[in-house]
């Protein structure tokens, strides 16, 4: 992970702002980064109330923005009390995702942190449209956080895929491991590895062209994936004996959320490819449904090659 000097905190929901600030403060203190807290605001009713009075509309808009600025100033008081380098900014923009992407382009942060949207009827924190736009287009690591506090020794899971079919993503696992390893050092966490592979179809049992025993083929496939995990760790310089390396057999969109729950994970570090769409884990299923079943925080990193091509 590149050195983190600037952290941009994006607030979508006032309800989740406090949790977002606490986690942002933890990371910023650990790395000594500057923090900017940003949100967009817009009032359709205010705009409609002064359709034919531009001066009054601008006056109302300024007052509305000042109210949001006062709220942000109150929100960052705990950080200022610790003499942290923190500031705030507000845009008037009816399109939240556009306002946030414009801010990212102008501020040039090293890390973006944002809250997940809360759905009252479902009583869950799910990824919304703005989150997916950021996943697709944010050029720097993106952390999407939920309200649950990190444990005293956070468990950080690196979701890797060491056996690849796309050469352009060959370096992505190294970036995932690098980011996860740095997080562990910064917040005193423990690193776990997760990899999932597709099981061998049982239909091969009835295929006369297959001369090997099904169980032998299955074991060989599993050993191939285990070896790939070990080689990746060796290449990165991490001892396999010093962490939990979990290999699942099945559909990743089902196995990964189940493992994260079982391991009581605090953060999962994942890779995004092909313009940021996280489909290398979830081929053949709906990515949104898969990620919405992950209850811990997400750190999304991109392959540098993919970022340069966008």
Keywords:
Rossmann fold, 10-stranded mixed beta sheet, two-stranded antiparallel sheet, 42% helix, elongated
What does this structure look like?
This protein is of the alpha/beta class and about 300 residues long. It folds into two domains: about 1-145, Rossmann fold (3-Layer(aba) Sandwich), CATH 3.40.50; about 150-310, Rossmann fold, CATH 3.40.50. It has eleven helices and twelve strands. The strands form two sheets. It has a ten-stranded mixed β-sheet, sandwiched between helices. A two-stranded antiparallel ribbon has the order 5-6. Helix 8 links the parallel strand 9 (about 190-195) and strand 10. The longest helix has 23 residues, at about 215-235. The radius of gyration is 22 Å and the shape is elongated. The two termini are about 20 Å apart. The relative contact order is 0.13. The model is unreliable at about 120-125 and about 275-290 (pLDDT under 50).
Strand percentage: 15-25%
Q: Kindly provide the name of the CATH class of the largest domain.
A: Alpha Beta
Overall average residue pLDDT: 81
Fold-level CATH name of the largest domain: Rossmann fold
Number of helices: 11
Distance between the termini: 20 Å
Main beta sheet strand tally, sense and closure: 10 strands, mixed
Number of domains: 2
Secondary-structure class: alpha/beta
- What portion of residues is helical? 40-55%
Order of helices and strands: EHEHHHEHEEEHEEHEHEHEHEH
Gyration radius, in Å: 22 Å
**Topology, number of strands:** 12
- CATH-level-2 architecture of the largest domain: 3-Layer(aba) Sandwich
What is the chains' assembly state? single chain
Task: Enumerate the spans where pLDDT stays under 50 for 5 or more consecutive residues.
Answer: 119-123, 275-288
- Spatial strand order of the main sheet: 3-2-1-4-7-12-11-8-9-10
Shape: elongated
């Amino acid at each position: 992970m590149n050195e983190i000097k600037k952290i941009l905190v994006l607030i979508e929901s006032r309800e989740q702002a406090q949790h977002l600030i606490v986690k942002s403060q933890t990371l910023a203190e650990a790395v000594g980064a500057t923090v900017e807290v940003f949100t967009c605001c817009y009032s359709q009713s205010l705009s409609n109330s002064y359709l034919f009075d531009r001066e009054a509309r601008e006056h109302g808009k300024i007052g509305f923005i000042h109210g949001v600025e006062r709220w942000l100033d109150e929100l960052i008081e705990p950080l200022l009390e610790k003499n942290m380098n923190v500031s705030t900014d507000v845009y008037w923009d009816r399109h939240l995702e556009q306002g946030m992407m414009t801010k990212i382009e102008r501020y040039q942060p090293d890390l973006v942190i944002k809250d997940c949207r809360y759905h009252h009827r479902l009583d869950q924190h799910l990824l919304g449209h703005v989150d997916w736009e950021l996943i697709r287009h944010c050029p720097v690591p993106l952390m999407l956080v939920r309200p649950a506090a990190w444990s005293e020794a956070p468990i950080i899971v690196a979701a890797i895929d060491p056996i690849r079919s796309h050469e352009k993503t060959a370096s992505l696992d190294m970036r995932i491991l690098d980011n996860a390893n740095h997080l562990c050092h910064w917040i005193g966490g423990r690193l776990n590895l997760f990899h999932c592979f597709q099981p061998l179809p049982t239909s091969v049992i009835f295929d006369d062209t297959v001369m090997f025993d099904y169980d032998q083929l299955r074991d060989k496939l599993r050993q191939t994936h285990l070896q790939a995990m070990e080689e990746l760790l060796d290449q990165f310089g991490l001892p396999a004996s010093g962490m939990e390396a979990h290999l699942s057999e099945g559909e990743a969109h089902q196995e990964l959320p189940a493992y994260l729950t079982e391991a009581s994970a605090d953060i999962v570090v994942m890779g995004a490819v092909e313009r940021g769409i996280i489909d290398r884990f979830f081929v053949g299923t709906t990515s949104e449904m898969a990620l919405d079943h992950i209850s811990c925080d997400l750190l999304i990193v991109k392959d540098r090659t993919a970022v340069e091509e966008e």
